[in-house]
Amino acid sequence: MALATSSVSEDSVQLRIFKIIVIGDSNVGKTCLTFRFCGGGFPGSSEATIGVDFREKTVEIDGEKIKVQVWDTAGQERFRHSLVEHYYRNVHGVVFVYDVTKLSSFHNLRTWLQECEGHAVPALVPRVLVGNKCDLLEQVEVPSGLALNFAKAHKMVLFETSAKDPSQAKNVEKIFMSLACQLKAQKSLPYRGSNRPHSSNEREVAGVAKNICPC
To answer: Which of the seven top EC classes does this enzyme belong to (predicted)?
Structure first.
């Protein structure tokens, strides 16, 4: 399957849109992963995302250009309570992120899975598991085997990577492209002509959401 990416605006072309949400504890690197995928780099700030952050990237899969919308949410409940229903609306794919150097972030994945279920995310929506900060080799608290068993139990593919390490950029891209390829293969999603969020409510959420730290 041929994969390619493009940063050229496709507003004049009707593109299929895939909405992918990224969830996990605060400070596991959710926004850094989305920033690496959509912007190609790593942000220099380390402050926290407040509310919801929204990025997008046009990719090409087997000759079809597709717009991937990546939604990143704050891990702290006080920042996301009023926005969470909009966040889960019309979701096509889910990325669960934990910090390999923080065992508690891995254990809390069960809470994030429960939140998905609580907001009626269909079982057919593809999910992937990402262990971030693998560049911190001497600080790892979550063994790969433990994460792999969890991923298998919940029918997810496991990626271990580092949003910070430039040499891992292709691995970060694989996370989101693997979801995009699965979604394209389903051939059941509607086409939309806009590169903005899917509804007036989601446009409002994106406008209210403020990200002062892409990390």
So the answer is: hydrolase
